[in-house]
């Protein structure tokens, strides 16, 4: 593989990452994005500490977290990728918008907006690049909802 091919594949992994939530595709896409176990750090959004979790278990959490939203849109851009053999680091900008049904929002309140950065790690597997660590650093939020029984992750 060339560095350009690796970069293209890593950017595509990040695009599929966004599609998991935006398309609510919690079955086929996760295996194209993550390793069987993944470390997640959404502490800047959720206030919960980082955790390492089995992929199947995480997909159930993610499915429940995104269930209340009628739509989401994650724009991930500005990828800066460092490749060292079979390991890679991906720094990218994110703007994530999350729309709730009317019954969950106050009059005039827009979508929940999260703006920040991803600092992720990936490894090359026999099936291509997969994320092993995902870290979101939110630098701005608007209209963060209070959702019972869900821990939304941007």
- Residues in helix, %: 25-40%
The tally of helices reads: 4
**Rg on CA atoms, Å:** 15 Å
Question: What profile does the largest beta sheet have?
Answer: 6 strands, mixed
Overall geometry comes to globular
SSE sequence, one letter per element: HHEHEHEEEE
What is the average per-residue confidence, as pLDDT, rounded to a whole number? Answer: 90
Widest sheet, order of strands: 2-1-6-5-4-3
Regarding quaternary structure, how should these chains be classified? single chain
Percent of residues in β-strands: 35-45%
Number of strands: 6
Describe the structure.
This protein has 154 residues and is α+β, with helices and mostly antiparallel strands. It has helices at residues 3-22, 30-33, 43-46, 55-66, and strands at 34-41, 51-54, 71-84, 87-99, 112-125, 128-142. 26% of the residues lie in helices and 44% in strands. The protein has a 6-stranded mixed sheet. The longest helix is centred in the first third of the chain and has 20 residues, at 3-22.
Q: Descriptors for this entry?
A:
154 residues, alpha+beta, six-stranded mixed beta sheet, 44% strand, disordered C terminus
What does this entry show, briefly?
The chain is α+β, with helices and mostly antiparallel strands. It has four helices and six strands. Strand 3 (71-84) and strand 4 form a beta hairpin.
What's the SSE blueprint?
Blueprint: H1 3-22, H2 30-33, E1 34-41, H3 43-46, E2 51-54, H4 55-66, E3 71-84, E4 87-99, E5 112-125, E6 128-142
Parallel strand pairs: 1-6
Antiparallel strand pairs: 1-2, 3-4, 4-5, 5-6
